[in-house]
């Protein structure tokens, strides 16, 4: 390998806080128009350049982002900066207190979706406004390129995130059981306690960006009608206060499909997003004190698209679903909670998926990886269970390796094979959980293969 080239870096953040009336995402069947704003939400971009090669990391305080918005952002940013679309990673922190670019519930061509149910399909008004704002963040970050130094480090945090799936005494699995329910037998799975930091300083020694990694579902005070960035926003705010106003703090939320901030075995646990942000910021302060910075770093990237099959309904379930929607062509409402009954939302989603699968049975899933010196970052397209992230970390030739779920798309929950045996919310077929049980292994295996290619120096001539 040739001598490592000097690093340049640039970062920027742009406000993407929606106006009143925009639909907040993160709910299966409830309209949630914005009423107030608790904290602003941002698009944050970090561009790194070495030896003529650029990569761009973008974090969004959104529930998720999908095509066509993701493709549009990449294309427009490429025109504005010259950065290849495949070199841009768009990660959403998955806060349930913000909009999404796209929908996880229904699409406009799904059955029974009438004009008055538009909010089940996302909010086009926000999409049209937010896309150019995100492109502007990338443009500004690229314009801010300057000589830089970089370093990384990790710590452990076991006080704020917990596996949310429990095996019950009857052998079933329940997501979010009643706190200290005596029918709980044991927690089904692990968490990932790693707190990761990639820190970037400018030529004057000031911190210009931090890439912060932790893994936890942000659903604070849901189903509120105010905008909040949740614990990722509180963490970003705390780190900016720690490192200075010149610092752009990007949060890469890991694979947390089965990890949450509520402690179901401790009724005294404080899950307030500000408490979580404060504890993680304290962790970052300790990590930064141990980081060694270097002014050169090799950059590389890989991108692969997997074609993963969808699960299908049995003929009996399909017939039942069709009959239910014939009997209920319009949604029954639960007026106590101002929401459509879940049975109707599931039926519409399942029948819509069936009709799509008849035409195209597979889902395009993009897996993306960046090498940044001795560290690496992986982007994965949905709510993967944390076991997938842990498998990538075990198989990676890089350390540290930080994985981000909800990157470049949202293909729904991606549970373990074992989770399908126990059942539970994340495994119930719908537009938010549709891939075959082996999907998690397919994604983690693809990520590990790309990381090994980069470590072995397999050429990638597309700069």
Keywords for this structure?
463 residues, alpha+beta, 2 domains, 23 strands
Concise description?
The chain has 463 residues and is an alpha+beta fold.
Spatially, the strands of the biggest sheet line up as 5-4-3-1-6-11-12-14
> What structural category characterises the helix and strand content?
alpha+beta
The helix count comes to 9
Instruction: Please tell me what the overall shape is.
Output: globular
Low-confidence stretches are none
Question: Could you describe the 3D structure shown?
Answer:
- This protein has 463 residues and is α+β, with helices and mostly antiparallel strands.
- The protein has 2 domains: 8-305 and 364-456, no CATH class; 315-359, no CATH class.
- Helix content is 28%, strand content 26%.
- It contains 9 helices and 23 strands.
- It has helices at residues 69-81, 124-143, 230-243, 273-288, 315-327, 342-359, 386-395, 417-422, 439-456, and strands at 8-15, 36-37, 42-50, 53-60, 88-92, 146-156, 162-163, 165-168, 173-175, 184-187, 194-202, 207-214, 226-227, 248-253, 259-260, 299-309, 333-334, 339-340, 362-372, 375-379, 383-384, 401-404, 413-414.
- An 8-stranded mixed sheet has the order 5-4-3-1-6-11-12-14, sandwiched between helices. A 4-stranded mixed sheet has the order 16-19-20-22, covered by helices on one side.
- α7 (386-395) packs parallel to α9 (439-456).
- It starts with 7 loop residues before the first strand and ends in a 7-residue tail after the last helix.
- 51% of the residues are buried.
- The model has no long low-confidence stretch (mean pLDDT 96).
